[in-house]
Amino acid sequence: MIEKLNIAALLPELILVVMAMAIAMIDLFDTSVRRHTTYVLTLMTLVLVAVLQAFDASAGETIYSFGNMVVSDPMGNWLKCFSTLSVMVTLVYGRPYAAERDMLRMGGELFTLGLFALLGMYVMISGNNFLVLYLGVELLALSSYALVALRRDNATASEAAMKYFVLGALGSGFLLYGMSLLYGATGSLDISTVFKSVTSGHINHQVLVLGLVFVVCGLAFKFGVVPFHMWVPDVYQGSPTVVTLLIGGAHKLAAFAMTMRLLVEGLLPLAIDWQQMLMVLSVSSLLIGNLAGIAQTNIKRMIAFSTISQMGFVLIGLYSGVVNGNTAAAANAYSSAMFYVVTYVLTTLAVFGIVMLLAREGFESEEIADFAGLNQRSPLYAGVMALCMFSLAGIPPMVGFAGKLSVLQALVASGQTGAVALAVYAVMMSLLAAFYYLRVVKVMYFDTPITASTVSAAVDVRTVLLINSGLLLILGLLPGGLMTLCARAIVSTLGT
């Protein structure tokens, strides 16, 4: 562990913020319909930043910088790298979709706001101070609100942005109030100092738990779990699909990282309290998410409720880390949760990639019925969508099965009271979810096509989509490499 004022530790962030401002200026002179120059510069920036983050993560160093307010460690660097790749893939899939809907005609805000949203994720992932974390939350939130409302002439998008703004302010308020209570109890905004103060046992436990309740509520909103989930289906459906993918993809990685910073690195001595809250949130999310998902006919709303239930599995991993004050199972549990959230984002990218690919000018292709007979029109893309549905349902050999198995294995291995019952419940909920996932496969392969038009994609979109879907199968067959990477990252973080 190194403590110093190390600008190099934040080199990716500095490059991103400089390039985001430069691209915003250059975009003023880009008159092409699809913002070709802006797009290429954005992708080049994201590739460079992702390479730097992967290099920093592989080095294995933990560096505290800027007065201990920022931490650069393997877990954070890998999550930032995955977030960067997620945003890059989102923009590759989304550029044709945005261009056909005049979202690029007036400017390249999709790219610049996407970069600033990514910067907010970086701050959330690297923050080691309550104020820094909150600044990251607000930077991400404000960029996301603007992105949701990017189609200014679309009433549905404007309504979704308003709902997201109002409920987002509520979630941020919960988080800020919880942090203020923790600050009042411990006298510090520094997460490491808060940990030491809580460990000392000289602080009023009731005040700590009250602050903890509000912090968990704020984090639950960011994950979109029950009962803080009502914004999710409306925002997913109302947003332009490219923005839906941004919210449903990279956002979850940042939410997971912030949860690790606050609950594990800062409040681990209170695990007996916050784990019970996470367990209730998880059980509720698995039930409500899957029951509501069955009733959906809109693919975006279906995936929204799917997300709610999928985040329930992530919370199970976080719930399994500490048993009666013993942290022996922590590395296994938290690494399984990290593996799950990374593979979930990978699957979500491919799902919405197909949804955007099927959309045409003036036609969104958002209803499940719009996928009817897709196999007869475009067997390749029907196959990709089928792989995604199998992965989300947890059917082997897809990566979703490996993710669910790792979380449930960590839960049972932890020996928590009722762990086996919770594992059985999660499996039963997964069987329930399989109904609406496999319904999409049935519609694609057995229903009569509603149109005879074939599906075509640009070379960059097709290439990335094939790599994306291929990884779902490869990582399902050979999950060991990514699991080891997550385990080492978590062990390094817990060690500091």
Report on this structure:
The chain has 496 residues and is mainly alpha-helical. The protein has one domain. 75% of the residues lie in helices and 2% in strands. The chain contains 20 helices and three strands. Strands 1-2-3 form a three-stranded mixed beta sheet. α12 runs antiparallel to α13, α13 packs parallel to α17 and α17 runs parallel beside α19. The longest helix is centred in the middle third of the chain and has 32 residues. The chain is globular and about 70 Å long. The N and C termini lie close together (7 Å). The mean pLDDT is 89.
Output the keywords:
single chain, 496 residues, mainly alpha, 20 helices, globular
Blueprint of the fold:
Elements (H helix, E strand, L loop, with lengths): L1 E2 L7 H16 L9 H24 L3 E3 L4 E3 L1 H27 L8 H18 L3 H19 L6 H32 L4 H10 L4 H19 L7 H8 L2 H8 L1 H17 L4 H24 L4 H21 L10 H29 L15 H4 L1 H15 L5 H16 L4 H28 L12 H19 L2 H16 L1
Parallel strand pairs: 1-2
Antiparallel strand pairs: 2-3
Helix pairs in contact: 1-2, 1-4, 2-3, 3-4, 3-10, 3-11, 3-14, 3-20, 4-5, 4-11, 5-6, 6-8, 6-9, 7-11, 8-11, 8-12, 9-10, 9-13, 10-14, 11-14, 12-13, 12-18, 13-14, 13-17, 14-16, 14-17, 14-19, 14-20, 16-18, 16-19, 17-18, 17-19
Content of β-strand: under 5%
Strand arrangement in the largest pleated sheet = 1-2-3
How large, in whole angstroms, is the Cα Rg? Answer: 22 Å
Q: State the share of residues found in helices, binned by percent.
A: over 70%
Tally the structural domains. 1
Short summary of the structure?
By secondary structure, the chain is an all-alpha fold. Helix content is 75%, strand content 2%.
